[in-house]
C-alpha cells in the first residue's frame, strides 16, 4: 500500500540526540514520516526506541536536533517549543509499552479520559453551564461507544479495566487515543503480550484505524511479522543510531539490519 501520493510529511525528526549520564540513548537520529502512512521503528532492546517516542511527546527534551510536526492543514510546529501537556492539542497521542490505564475505573471511564481536551466547554463555562456540560458528556459517551464498538469491546464497557485480560486492556488504551481525534498515533509495542490471534487482529485494526480515522501511525514493535505486514516504511536503529530506512522488503534484506538482530529473539524472517 502506498502512502499519500503527494508525499506530504507529517513528522520530521532531524539529528536528534539525547544522553543519560554518559550514555547516548539517541544519537543523531533523523527520519521523516509521510501523512497517513504506518511507519515502524525497530531495533534491539535498549536501542532507544521508547526514548525517541519520549522525545517526540516532550516527556524528555532532546539535547539537540529538531522535531517538527506538520498537521493536516499544513501548519508546521516545532514540538520542542511545546510542553508535554500541549502535545495532545497538536493531535498527537501515544500508548505506552506497559499499558497505562486507571485500573479501578470502568473501561468506559478510561476511554472518556481521552476526551478531556476536546470537550467544547471552557472551564469557566463548565461551572456555570451545566446543561452544556451534560451535552458535552453525552456526546463524548456516544463517541466512546462508537469507538468501543469499532474495537469490538463495547459489551465490556461497564467492567473494571484492571480486571480485564491484557489484550482487552491494550484495546482500551487504543480506544482512549481515538477519543482525542488524533492525527498522529504513536504505539509503543502494541503486540507485546498478545497471542498470535490477537496480534493478527491488531494488525487489521491498525490498518482500519488509519483508514477510518485518517491518521498517521508510528509504531515500535518487536513482532517482525506484524511490522513487515503493516508498515509502509521502517527505520531500523541500533545503539541510538539509524542503520537503515526503507520499505519492509528493503529493511528485511539489509545486511546491517540483520547484523544488529543477530542473537536477538525478534529475528527477521
Ligand atoms: N530516564 C532514563 N534514565 C537513564 N537511562 C535511560 C532512561 N531512559 C532510557 N534510558 C536508557 O536509554 C537506552 C535506550 O532505552 P529505550 O529507549 O527504553 O530502549 P528501547 O525502547 O529501544 O528498548 C537504554 O540503555 C536505557 O537504559
Ligand atoms: Mg522500549
Automatic annotation (TrEMBL):
Gene3D superfamilies: P-loop containing nucleotide triphosphate hydrolases. GO terms for cellular component: plasma membrane. GO terms for biological process: D-alanine transmembrane transport; L-alanine transport; L-isoleucine import across plasma membrane; L-valine import across plasma membrane. The keyword Transport applies. InterPro entries: AAA+_ATPase, ABC_AA/LPS_Transport, ABC_transporter-like_ATP-bd, BCA_ABC_TP_C, P-loop_NTPase. GO terms for molecular function: ATP binding; ATP hydrolysis activity; L-isoleucine transmembrane transporter activity; L-phenylalanine transmembrane transporter activity; L-valine transmembrane transporter activity. Keywords: ATP-binding, Nucleotide-binding, Transport. The keyword Transferase does not apply. It comes from the Bacteria. Residues 11-264 form the ABC transporter domain. This is ABC transporter ATP-binding protein. It comes from Alkalibacterium putridalgicola.
Amino acid at each position: 500500500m502506498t502512502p499519500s501520493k503527494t508525499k506530504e510529511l507529517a513528522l520530521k525528526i532531524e539529528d536528534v540526540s539525547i544522553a543519560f549520564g554518559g550514555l547516548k540513548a539517541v544519537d543523531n537520529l533523523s527520519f521523516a514520516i509521510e501523512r497517513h502512512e504506518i511507519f515502524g521503528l525497530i531495533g534491539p532492546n535498549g536501542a532507544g526506541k521508547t526514548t525517541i517516542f519520549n522525545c517526540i511527546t516532550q516527556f524528555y527534551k532532546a539535547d539537540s536536533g529538531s522535531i517538527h510536526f506538520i498537521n493536516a492543514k499544513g501548519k508546521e510546529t516545532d514540538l520542542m517549543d511545546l510542553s508535554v501537556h500541549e502535545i495532545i492539542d497538536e493531535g498527537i497521542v501515544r500508548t505506552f509499552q506497559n499499558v497505562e490505564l486507571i485500573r479501578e475505573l470502568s473501561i468506559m471511564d478510561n476511554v472518556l479520559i481521552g476526551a478531556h481536551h476536546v470537550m467544547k466547554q471552557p472551564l469557566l463555562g463548565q461551572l456555570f453551564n451545566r446543561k452544556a456540560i451534560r451535552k458535552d458528556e453525552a456526546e463524548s459517551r456516544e463517541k466512546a461507544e462508537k469507538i468501543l464498538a469499532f474495537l469490538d469491546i463495547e459489551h465490556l464497557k461497564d467492567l473494571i479495566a484492571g480486571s480485564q485480560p491484557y489484550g482487552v486492556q491494550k484495546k482500551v488504551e487504543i480506544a482512549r487515543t481515538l477519543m482525542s481525534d488524533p492525527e498522529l498515533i504513536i504505539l509503543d509495542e502494541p503486540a507485546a503480550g498478545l497471542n498470535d490471534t490477537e496480534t493478527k487482529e491488531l494488525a487489521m485494526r491498525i490498518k482500519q484505524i488509519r483508514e477510518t480515522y485518517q491518521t498517521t501511525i508510528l509504531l515500535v514493535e518487536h513482532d517482525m511479522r506484524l511490522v513487515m505486514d503493516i508498515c509502509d516504511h521502517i527505520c531500523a536503529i541500533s545503539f541510538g543510531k539509524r542503520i537503515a530506512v526503507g520499505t519492509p522488503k528493503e529493511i528485511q534484506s539489509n545486511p546491517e539490519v540483520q547484523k544488529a538482530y543477530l542473537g536477538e529473539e525478534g529475528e527477521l524472517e
